[in-house]
Specification:
Elements lengths: L2 H4 L4 H7 L6 E2 L3 E4 L11 E4 L4 E4 L5 E2 L1 H9 L3 H8 L3 H21 L1 E6 L4 H9 L10 E7 L2 E9 L5 E4 L4 E4 L5 E3 L5 E5 L2 H10 L9 E4 L18 E5 L4 H13 L3 E3 L10 H8 L3 H7 L6
Parallel strand pairs: 12-13, 12-14, 14-15
Antiparallel strand pairs: 1-2, 2-3, 3-4, 4-5, 6-7, 7-8, 8-9, 9-10, 11-13
Helix pairs in contact: 3-4
């Protein structure tokens, strides 16, 4: 078994073998306490879907091999020897992965990219209170498993699209962040594109000047951008009010003193878009909050 093969073994199974249990979990991800130190709040996020782990406390990425190395304090060859016990799991996982990739490559195709026109998509944008921000979006028609689908597309830096509609949330092609630059000395960072669109809707209310923008498209992408912020004088963070958001903000503030947690704007809501939907901010919001924000 080589490293590429070993890293297909589900990280959760590896952690279970060491009797390491999650602190919080859902079907797609879980938080664990750090593997290399004591802590009161779990900072290791394991993504079950992509079989990756990320430590918000140190910024380290983990796979199955490095998980074993960290716990056992051993070499790569020793870690591979430990992982041999999961060879049956690996073989089954490899077969399933190969089948998924083959099925996806044969059936996945973007058929139409155009301006948003479909009534269902316009209605969905209206329900999210961002129907006036279609200049950042496309209407994407695609086929998966010979079935026709369509959704709102938000393009990332690698040419992939985050696809959303009322019933699904997927990424077509390569996952990546989205950056929008105007050579500003300020940058605003968002977890998802609906939060970015929501901010654009209240930017004037908050008396904010346009800036550079980074949309992570997943909090797990934060490692890709943390070293690209040194030249910014102001860094505003608009993440979700959850544990992953807390860790992400803490990590960025630890590496850049100019990073500012701006979630006080929507502290009673899950995220910025929820605040826009349920609070229906108006000019009174600008007056109430403008002193807490930099121009």
């Amino acid at each position: 078994m080589n490293c590429a093969q070993a890293n297909k073994i589900p990280i959760r199974i590896v952690l279970d073998s060491f009797f390491v249990s999650p602190s919080k979990e859902n079907p797609k991800a879980a938080f664990y306490f750090a593997l290399d130190r004591h802590e009161k709040t779990p900072s290791l996020l394991v993504d079950f879907v992509n079989n990756k782990a990320f430590d918000f406390g140190t910024g380290k990425n983990y796979d199955a091999v490095s998980i074993v190395q960290t716990i056992e304090k051993c070499s790569v060859s020793e870690a591979l020897k430990y992982l041999e016990q999961f060879s049956f799991t690996f073989k089954n996982q490899e077969i399933l992965t190969k089948q998924k990739l083959e099925n996806f490559s044969k059936s996945y195709e973007i058929t139409v990219i155009k301006e948003i026109q479909h009534p269902a998509l316009l209605e969905y944008l209206k329900s999210r209170k961002v129907e006036n921000k279609t200049e950042f979006l496309k209407e994407i028609h695609y086929q998966i498993n010979d079935k026709n689908n369509f959704g709102i597309g938000f393009k990332n830096n690698s040419g992939g699209y985050e696809i959303r509609n009322a019933y699904s949330k997927i990424c077509l092609d390569k996952k990546d962040v989205t950056t929008m630059k105007i050579d500003s000395n300020s940058v605003r960072i968002f977890e998802g594109f609906f939060d970015f669109l929501s901010f654009k809707n209240v930017e004037n209310y908050l008396e904010k000047q346009p800036s550079d923008y980074i949309i992570l498209n997943s909090v797990l992408m934060i490692e890709r951008i943390k070293n690209d912020l040194d030249n910014y004088q102001n860094i505003e963070l608009y993440f979700d009010n959850d544990e992953a958001g807390n860790h992400a903000i803490e990590m960025l503030k630890n590496v850049n003193e100019n990073a500012e947690d701006c979630r006080h704007l929507y502290s009673d809501f899950k995220d910025l878009n929820d605040w826009l939907i349920y609070e229906s901010p108006s000019k009174e919001v600008k007056i109430h909050h403008k002193s807490a924000f930099k121009r």
